[in-house]
Amino acid sequence: MEQQQQFRTKRDGVVQVLDGSEIRALVENRDAFARFVDDRFRKLDGDGDGRLSVKELQPAVADIGAAIGLPARGSSRQADHIYAEVLNEFTHGKQDSVSKSEFQRVLSDILLGMAAGLKRDPIVILRINGEDLNEFVDSSRYEPEAAAIFSQVNSGGNASPHQCLLAALRKLTVDHGMPPASDSWVVENIVEPAMQQLGTDQLDQPVSQEAFFHDFKKLLSIITRRLQQHPVIVAHTEKTFEGSGIKRLLSNKFEFDKLLDSVCRGVPKEHKDKTSKGYLRVALDRIADSASLPPYGAVDQVDAVVNEAFKMAKADDGKLVDEAEFKKLLSEILGAIMLQLDGNPIAVSTNTVVHEPMSAPSSLLSPTPLSPVVSSPSE
């Protein structure tokens, strides 16, 4: 939250801060939300049978993904996992269609969850127009940071100028005034034209640090001018996972026990009312939001911590356990994750390019400000 405040006070390029208040206001206004659901349901119900099939739900799932900054389905394992979870929320993994009332109830839960997430971690919408990048190039920061970047991108000593410059651009962030250089739109409209103007494509011999300093500064000046002509809108989020959410959850025994009971009711029982340990990951995902954790598969660094916690608890052997043991294991896993994050917090910064005008307006969340056409997140 402090970082978001800094963006608000430091940058003239802040367009909007999405904190979930508009979503919450929509859902809490019963009449307005009912009209909203009627309109969306009618547009999604292609065959007019009064129910939404899994196929008809797909545009709604895609729009929810776009609204929370996910890349398109099929572009990453992490995103596909979250899309599958959203669809499962609608169908409970069993139904082949849902009624309007079911659609309204689940959509309400999802939107309120999104609003709560945005309240905790607002999305700052930035307009990157070259001013900050120009300031960086002219500042005392440039040479030491360029030297550090050069040592990273030319560690083998045999990279060409073209390779070095492209790799160096990916080391810059929105804090430097650079939009994500790995984004396909940025590559096509900003990076590639600037590289062509610089004219390094014909140079394939190793580059010196002095030559890199000169070419990199010249390239950034060209990019600055292109950004002045073609500003880029970027959604910036910053989140630190340090275990405090788990600590709060575990400290309230009454609420935690209620949550465990709710989770266990939704876990399949097998032989003699016992449950496979294999469902512990499913249960952890259902607790993740309450514990201020990302869904498994969304953040690689947190996934590594979770995997280590499962290893410590010997929770991946697939054995059957009764409900009490299942709850105990889940509590131990959460405790192990909390201790690891407390000792080594994980900070994740995401910058997602928002392309406007929209080529395909949202059919679900429009006209709320939740439906940018987005590309894949950049760490």
Report the average pLDDT across residues. Answer: 81
Number of helices: 16
**What low-confidence regions span 5 or more consecutive residues with pLDDT below 50?**
1-12, 356-379
Overall body shape: globular
Strand content: 5-15%
- What topology, given as strand order, has the largest sheet? 1-4-5-8-9
Q: What is the CA-CA span between the terminal residues?
A: 18 Å
Name the assembly state. single chain
Helix content: 55-70%
Protein name: EF-hand domain-containing protein
Keywords: Calcium
Organism: Panicum hallii var. hallii
Domain EF-hand: 32-67
Summary, kept brief:
This protein is α+β, with helices and mostly antiparallel strands and 379 residues long. 55% of the residues lie in helices and 11% in strands.
Summary keywords:
Recoverin, domain 1; 5-stranded antiparallel β-sheet; single chain; 9 strands; disordered N terminus; 11% strand; 379 residues; globular; alpha+beta; two-stranded antiparallel ribbon; disordered C terminus
Give your account of this protein's structure.
- This protein has 379 residues and is of the alpha+beta class.
- The protein has three domains: 101 residues, EF-hand (Recoverin, domain 1, Orthogonal Bundle); 108 residues; 102 residues.
- It has a five-stranded antiparallel β-sheet, with helices on one face. Strands 2-3 form a two-stranded antiparallel sheet.
- α8 packs across α9, α9 packs across α11 and α10 packs across α11.
- The longest helix has 21 residues.
- The protein is globular, with a radius of gyration of 24 Å.
- 32% of the residues are buried.
